[in-house]
Amino acid sequence: MIRELTPAEMKSILSSINREQHFLYYSYLTARKHNTVHYGQFTEQGELLGVLAFFRGLSFYAFSVFPVEKSFCLRSVLAFTKEQLNLPDNAVGNVIVNEEVMAVLASQLELVKSPKKLLLMKHIHQEALPPVDTSVLHLGPPYFELIESKMADLDTMAFSKEELQYPFYGVMEQHELIAVGGYHIYSEDYVELGNIGTDVRWRRQGYGKKICAELTRAGRRVTSNVYLNVIEENVGAIYLYQSIGYELMCKQNMVEFII
């Protein structure tokens, strides 16, 4: 049986889920909950086998999956979800899962291309943060249009306008926003840095490190759980994050598949 989860069922999952092993789905149960719909597969006895969730409001088809038992049939739940939400044929879905889940579910997905390796990192060593840099500004509402324009320029696919409610930091040069960063999640529970980028003309000059350090510092003021995701092949960025106190928590896969 496949049906939408009840609030009580979602609360029960949240009480036992490992945030770092199921980082994306954890956000669907918490900070992103109001924009998501969750479909569960159950045995005839009512035992939950697994969940597929969909996030509304992004420019692409964003899913998250949480298998509970090996008998979970992702294909069946995906077909049900597609019908319920009236998703188009042959559209491309996106999901992020840890390596263990990937090994179990890969055979059930029609992949568009080879998955990208994505590393979840957590800020551990607060003493590694550099001193405050006064060139990094907190960007309030007067900067919102500029931020949105820069997000488009940087092609930050995961940016949503809703994230403007979270703090943004940036560096201005000659009235131009040359480097910027914000958060995908900003709460007392946990923080996830995101939407970080530097104008191509100003790269390799240390602005990314300055932005990340200030975002991390601001995040640590509200919670000790400060995270970010980085593509495994981006060795330079990984080294940067390690230099300001981040450590690897979980290896994940970014997967594109046919819905």
TrEMBL record:
GO terms for molecular function: acyltransferase activity, transferring groups other than amino-acyl groups. It holds the Pfam family Acetyltransf_1. It comes from the Bacteria. Residues 109-259 form the N-acetyltransferase domain. CDD domains: NAT_SF (cd04301). This is Acetyltransferase. The lineage of its organism: Bacteria, Bacillati, Bacillota, Bacilli, Bacillales.
